[in-house]
Structures are given as C-alpha cells and as structure tokens.
Amino acid sequence: MKVIHDAKELQQTALALRAQGKTIALVPTMGNLHAGHASLMDAARSRADVLIVSVFVNPTQFGPNEDYEKYPRTLDADCEVCRAHGVDILFSPAPATIYAPTFSTYVTESACSQGLCGRSRPTHFRGVCTIVNILFNLALPHVAVFGQKDAQQVAVLKRMVQDLHIPVEMAVAPIVRESDGLALSSRNQYLSPEERAVAPEIRAALREISEKIAAGTESAETLAEFFMNKLGANPLFEPEYIEIVDNATMLPLKKITRGNTLIAVAVRMTQSRTRLIDNIVA
Ligand code: PAF
C-alpha cells in the first residue's frame, strides 16, 4: 500500500493509472477507521482495479463550536485497517495541502442539504460537497462509496454529482451496527458508560417505528410523536429531530410511502453532548 500526503502527487498518480486503463474506486473518510469504514472498502474493492482511501479530517465541514480539534486522529491504526482491506493508496493530506491560504471556492447544494442535519449545522454540507469535489478532482475515481449511516450526506452528494455532471458512480453501503444495534460511528467513543448503555435505544425506537409502519401506521406525525416521547422520557437523551422524508429529495412527507421513505433521527446525549444520528428506510 502506498501512502500519499501530497495532493498533486495523488492527482499525477491517478492520471497515470487512468492512462494505463485502470479503474479507480475512492472511499472518502475522516479516519479513525472502524468496521463501518472497512465495509465501505470491501464494497469498493471489487468495483475497480485500484482502491484509494482518503483520510482527512475536513475543517470546512465542522461548525465553530463542533469537535474539529478533538476529532480522533489515528493514522497508524488507519493504515493497518487499510492494509487489511486491500487498499492500494491511502491519501492522508495535511489541511494546508488541500486548502491554500487564498482558498475561496465552495460548492453549495441548496435543496437536499436544508433540512435534517442542515438545520443545526448550516455550513456542514457546503464543507462536505467542497471536500468531496476536491477529492474527486485529485483521485479521479470511476466510483465512490459512501455509507447509508449518513443518509442525508448521500442524498446531497448524489444531487451534486447529478447537477454538476460529475462522471463518478455513487455507490452506497448499508449501516454497520454493534451487536446491540448501535450504529458504528467514530463519535461513539465520546459516550459516557451510562450513555453507551442506553444508546442502542435509538435503534430500538426506529425498529418499533418499522413495526408500526408494517402494521399499517401511515401518519408521519404519529410516528414522530412516538419517537420524541419514547426517547424524551430518558434524561440521557435530548432528541434533536426525527424527520420523515423522501429518500432522494429529503423533503418532508406527511404519509409514509413504502420503499422510498427515509426516517432519520439525531439525538444529543446529555452527559457528553455527543450527537448521534441513525436512520431506516421504510
Ligand atoms: O462521511 C465522512 O466521513 C465525511 O463527511 C466525508 C465524506 C469523508 C467528507 O469529509
């Protein structure tokens, strides 16, 4: 596995690979790799000749009071995960390599990014779209793989790729969970022991919602109320939102349309202030 730190070097390498007729898959990450990221690598591995993983804690997608500084940076361990999953190139740039001091160009998607997480994180998706564009321009992938855990990110990036005619196939891999149902996230390590013990209740509530839908409940309002009451009853949870939206547009739905409805939630844990997200497609 080759480790590249320099943006130009990655671009030259990708150009040379393309000139040789090789196909490239990219898995963009912020590092601190866990089994969820490994599943993205496994999904990408079989899709192209060369697998590139980027590890970059992207400053532009964090708000002023968010966890950019404390976000875990574990490059040595990340290298091991990448090696074990057949990664050919690990791209790990320093922020100054990506964002020049004069940097002033951002990519803004202005529909799918407005609700859900976009409401409390108003500049987050602008940062995500910008860095993913940059990574596409450096790694020149034929296909890129993202996780369904960040369902709104997937919708926003798919829209960006469509709108800007970017020649990259967007693939999505399912959420990977702990055995008790908690969705894997690098932020789970911020949880206090008490919070970690109850965190799987988020997924449990989503499963109950699935069961209610299967039993015939169609009203988004009824389901949202159920979720807020259920989690709101435990002082360790501060539910931020439950949104029942069209899976592609992220626009709110009043009635569940089976097969294309995303039920997405964000919950703030009150001891550590960790924000957890999860979702199901009904
Ligand atoms: O999902 C993430 O880890 C990040 O948002 C991404 C796509 C790597 C962009 O920094």
Helices and strands, with pairings:
Elements lengths: L1 E3 L2 H13 L4 E6 L5 H11 L4 E6 L19 H10 L4 E3 L3 H4 L18 H4 L3 H16 L3 E5 L3 H13 L5 E5 L19 H6 L1 H15 L5 H13 L4 E10 L14 E9 L5 E7 L1
Parallel strand pairs: 1-4, 2-3, 2-5, 3-4, 5-6
Antiparallel strand pairs: 7-8, 8-9
Helix pairs in contact: 6-7, 9-10
Pantoate binds next to strand 2 and helix 6.
Describe the structure.
With 282 residues, this protein is of the alpha/beta class. The chain is 37% helix and 19% strand. It contains 10 helices and 9 strands. The protein is globular, with a radius of gyration of 19 Å. The model has no long low-confidence stretch (mean pLDDT 97). The site of pantoate has 10 residues, from strand 2 and helix 6.
Order of helices and strands: EHEHEHEHHHEHEHHHEEE
Fill in the CATH topology of the largest domain.
Rossmann fold
Average per-residue pLDDT, rounded, comes to 97
Q: Going by CATH, what is the homologous superfamily of the largest domain?
A: HUPs
Task: Estimate the helix proportion, in percent.
Answer: 25-40%
Task: Please give the alpha-carbon distance between the first and last residues.
Answer: 40 Å
CATH class of the largest domain: Alpha Beta
The gross shape turns out to be: globular
Structural class, please?
alpha/beta
The strands making up the biggest β-sheet line up spatially as 1-4-3-2-5-6
Number of helices: 10
User: Which segments are poorly predicted (pLDDT under 50) over 5 or more consecutive residues?
Assistant: none
Beta-strand residue fraction: 15-25%
Tell me the number of structural domains: 2
- The CATH architecture of the largest domain comes to 3-Layer(aba) Sandwich
* Ligands bound to this protein structure: pantoate
Radius of gyration using CA atoms only: 19 Å
Summarize the biggest pleated sheet.
Answer: 6 strands, parallel
Number of strands: 9
